[in-house]
Amino acid sequence: MTLLTPPLEITAEEYRTRRERLCGLLAERSLDAIVVYGPVRVAYLSGFFFSATERPVALLLTAEGEVHLLLPRLELSHVQQQCPELNNIEVYEEYPGGGSGRHPMQVLADLMRRLGLAGRRIGADLDGYEHRWGYRGPALSAVLGQPVQADVALVDDLRSVKSEAEVALMREACRWGDHAHRVMQQMIREGADELAVSHAASQQATRDLLADLGKRYVPKAREGMPANAMFIRGANTAHPHGLHQAGAVTAGDVLVTGAYGVIGGYESELERTMLVGDPDPRFRQYFEAMLAAQQVGFDALRPGRTCAEVESEVQRFIRDELDMANLIRHHTGHAFGLEGHEHPFLDLDDHTVIQPGMVFSIEPGLYVPQLGGFRHSDTLVVTAQGSERLSLYSRALDDLLIPV
């Protein structure tokens, strides 16, 4: 007898639970409804993943738990396919009106009036749809003719603590991020082109993922691949977000890599500092310093502390123990999940209290002009006692050398 394995995605039951938790926040703030525009927030609350364009999509949730979706007609069959349990759908023909003379925000305002929400206390993640792809439109408060309490934290604070199901998806994403990096490392050699290797490794790792997971893998985007790897090289790595450069890998190049998986819409993060050839004492000095600083971050990440306290501990170590404060270019890390960067941040000015279930990158970097960047990044989930590393790729220098 063959046992059926579930698809790697969040269940409809968990989406309902998320909306119930949001309703609890509405009650705490005495709000009668909330309008959510952000595409990732809409997906988080409904399971409807879509390609965001100039055509507004909005999720309306009442304090009683009634959910409505505002959609362009071209998305109607799509939402019915993904979320058959969501039946309250308000469709507009096209943006900016498709000949109707009604802007989509007017359609939304009319819906809210029909639901008896005119003049009630309304919250929103944003006071109107995001201005993307040429979109122009009025604020929600303007079409309603009343104030709106806009606060992205209403939804994003819920997103910051991951459920067991979310962590499981991110753990699987880390497995494939590790695999993509391994494939890429095997392809890197002296004379190779960084762009060609990055794309080839991502394609091969994606083929491996699809073959292994089969129908359990459920894509949640129109673009990109579920397993990805890339690197930049040489002195260009001294820029924390250096762009790709044309040309060949050369002996002595410092490499800063990035690899990630995407499973059920959830991402992982893995970055490594590598070297083409044998390390000299100067490279070893900075590599070992970076590795020690990252370990301080690992040890500092635990529940009950604030993000600022973690960052302060890492910066203090780099300043006082390493005497390398001048090489810092960014904070120690960030949360992530459905997006590559999410709130909160391991930063001196972020005083969010760390809780079990939060997922962070730990990636303190040291950037040496004319030599290169030194940065490992790993995915960690906060546990009741401390944290657990989900990205398991080797951090050791001997495992990160490209032979010449």
UniProtKB/TrEMBL annotation:
Residues 18-128 form the Creatinase N-terminal domain. Residues 169-384 form the Peptidase M24 domain. It comes from the Bacteria. Pfam families: Creatinase_N (PF01321), Peptidase_M24 (PF00557). InterPro entries: Creatin/AminoP/Spt16_N, Creatinase/aminopeptidase-like, Creatinase_N, Pept_M24, Peptidase_M24B. PANTHER family: AMINOPEPTIDASE, XAA-PRO AMINOPEPTIDASE P-RELATED. This is Xaa-Pro peptidase family protein.
